[in-house]
Write a structure and sequence with these properties.
Elements lengths: L2 E5 L5 H8 L2 H7 L7 H8 L4 E7 L2 E10 L10 H5 L9 E8 L9 H17 L2 E4 L6 H9 L3 E6 L2 E7 L4
Parallel strand pairs: 4-5
Antiparallel strand pairs: 1-2, 2-3, 3-4, 5-7, 6-7
Length: 168
């Protein structure tokens, strides 16, 4: 399985529009509207650490990471959720990932993309990484756990999972 991550560019926006309008993704993310070209451009044109997942040069998905404290979480307060854990005092990334091509679901691509991004990018810049899928999204939770994430706690409808940098 030849999977690579390439930085997101405007020429990838048509893939994002197609994928984000797929019923299985709109159901997963709870965003029941139809994405327009303008909405995609507005949302994805700002500078961020965002990547398109390629399998044998074919775009199949999307991954982005960022400082977990820079954006509000959906349905809970991150600082409150982490009180009393070691995560309060270390740098923490958050990651968003989806496989946009339905014929590539449940084939290990999400896990492989996560492992690659964690090793090559995220855990070089942060001490730990958080994901917070909907607790009913068992496919995503399974992929995160296969990549090394461990459950931390449930907050609202989200299951918080974390992976920590292994000290040398």
């Amino acid at each position: 399985m030849d999977l690579t991550l390439v930085p997101l560019k405007p020429e990838h926006f048509s893939f994002l529009k197609k994928w984000l309008n797929e019923p299985y993704l709109t159901n997963t993310f709870g965003e029941k509207h139809i994405w327009t070209d303008r909405q995609i451009t507005d949302k994805y044109s700002h500078e961020m650490d965002a990547y398109i997942l390629l399998v044998e040069e074919k775009p199949i998905g999307y991954l982005q990471y960022y400082n977990a404290y820079d954006y509000p979480r959906d349905g809970y307060n991150l600082r409150e959720a982490l009180q009393g854990t070691d995560l309060e005092s270390i740098s923490l990334a958050a990651i968003d990932l989806f496989i946009g091509e339905s014929d590539h679901l449940s084939q290990g691509y999400g896990t492989k993309a996560l492992q690659s991004a964690l090793e090559r990018l995220i855990l070089r810049a942060f001490d730990a990484c958080l994901v917070d899928p909907d607790k009913s999204n068992l496919r995503a939770i399974k992929a995160y756990q296969k990549a090394g994430f461990v459950p931390l706690k449930t907050c609202g409808n989200s299951l918080l999972l974390v992976i920590r940098k292994i000290s040398p």
